[in-house]
Amino acid sequence: MENNIKGLKVALHNLGCKVNSYEMDVMIQKLVDAGCIIVPFNEKADVYIINTCTVTNIADRKSRQMLHRSKKENPDAIVVAVGCYVETGIEGVKKDEAIDLAIGNNKKSEIASILDEFVAARGDYDDKTMGGKSMIDINHTDIYEEMKLTNLPEHTRAYIKVQDGCNQFCTYCVIPYARGRVRSREMEDVLTEITDLSGKGCKEVVITGIHVGSYGVDKGQPMLVDLVEKVAEIPGIERIRLGSIEPRFITKENVDRMAKIDKLCPHFHLSLQSGCNSVLKRMNRHYSAEEFKESVALLRKAFDRPAITTDVIVGFPGETEEEFIECRDFVSDIEFYEMHVFKYSPRKGTVAAGMADQLTDREKSARSDVLLDITDRDSQNYRKGFIGQELSVLWEDEEVHGGKTYMIGHTDRYVRVAACEGTKEYEKAVSGELSRVTPRAMLSPDTLLI
Question: For the chain, does the N or the C end have fewer beta carbons within 10 angstroms?
Fold first, then answer.
């Protein structure tokens, strides 16, 4: 069979979540295997591929900007829009003159063959989906698109996608329409992928998905803890992290089982969004602030000083000053290791975008600043608590700060640690290897120095 894309220079750009990052790594593998030459995005290329995001209107705009920038860089190039923005805005994509080819979320693994066919028959199709060959109706499929990493993108850590889709339908979110309903990957496929990556030097895996706590529910029962127990048995894997999970996943049974898995990092990202029950109800979140606090208590009882991180949206439609204060006091009381604060951004096509009492940007910014001050304080206090204590660090890459070179790594709680060039600690810090160290000071607000 003739290969029409061998030798083509391909530039790729990724927007969005860790799932998108995993899928981008797989797409790069497919293209390299087909003979494409991957070049930096700022270089002139024959093909530009944008792995898009649609979580907010701003994400849509960034996706369009990168697509248009690509066509401007080389008007003769093939510009490919891939992923979530395509799924939610296909009519606009079809009309956009900067886009030559549109590929949906459940066709990413076929990118090399789709591109090859497009190059061979360019101009023969009436629309950018090649008569539907590059798109799938994501909202009416129960098929999990099989993807597999065969090479390790990073020296030490690999993100492993185990499920796709979401059934929650939060009022501010369009992702169920972009990703479809929950679809889980076969456990044996996941274990095979991780085993292969372990053989290539991978020490740490991050189990991720669009709604990772729902892994297995489409097959009859939740299986995330079962999966983690199996991954822990794979030789060479030293650490296992979980992606973002919902508070209701944190049951006593699940926590008791997880606490027995030595390789599971005590680092949990629990999605909060608001610490006020009335706001949570308008968001259609399926838990209360009290239930969230109970989940945190379970984790802190079972694990030694677990790193608990979260997301919070400020300025949700109708959020009163009293509701914000309730949220502020709640997150201050929890004392998260890190809190990612987002100013509410209306997403066209969601229930929340049509809600009354939309807040001004000024109000959102003021509230965001309050929560950012809280998380800065709590994050530094959490990190300082490990000064003088022996920690296990997985070393990654070198960075330069203030004219000095440091080797950077992370503890199992994802606390950044640095070793300065010229020290005996630096000499022992080998990328991809674990070592025991004792931090002695703060290098910066987000990094401990050994």
Answer: N
Single pTM value for the model: 0.93
Residues 242 and 377 in one domain: yes
Within the chain, what is the greatest distance between any pair of CA atoms?
A: 67
pLDDT tens digits in sequence order for the chain, 450 residues long: 469 999 999 999 999 999 999 999 999 999 999 999 999 999 999 999 999 999 988 899 999 999 999 999 999 999 999 999 999 999 999 999 999 999 999 999 999 999 999 999 876 777 899 989 999 888 888 889 999 998 877 667 899 999 999 999 999 999 999 999 999 999 999 999 999 999 999 999 999 999 999 999 999 999 999 999 999 999 999 999 999 999 999 999 999 999 999 999 999 999 999 999 999 999 999 999 999 999 999 999 999 999 999 999 999 999 999 999 999 999 999 999 999 999 999 998 999 999 999 999 999 999 999 999 999 999 999 999 999 999 999 999 999 988 999 999 999 999 999 999 999 999 999 999 999 999 999 999 999 999
Determine, yes or no, domain membership for 62: yes
Spatial strand order of the sheet with 239-242 comes to 183-184, 157-164, 204-209, 239-242
Residue with tokens 């009022």: 171
267 with 368, same domain? Answer: yes
Which residues, 6+ apart, have CB-to-CB distance to 159 below 8 Å? 18, 19, 21, 22, 25, 205, 206, 208, 243
Residues 260 and 352 grouped into a single domain = yes
Residue 338 domain-assigned (yes or no): yes
Give the domain CATH number at 190.
Answer: 3.80.30.20
Task: Report if residue 207 sits inside a domain.
Answer: yes
Q: Using CA atoms, how far apart are residues 366 and 312, in angstroms rounded to an integer?
A: 14
315 with 352, same domain: the answer is yes
Task: State whether 399 and 419 are in the same domain.
Answer: yes
Q: How many domains does the chain have?
A: 3
Q: Indicate whether 294 and 181 sit together in one domain.
A: yes
Show the domain range for 430: 391-449
- Spatial neighbors of 168 by CB under 8 A, at least 6 apart, are 176, 211, 284, 286
Whole-angstrom distance, CA of residue 177 vs CA of residue 32: 31
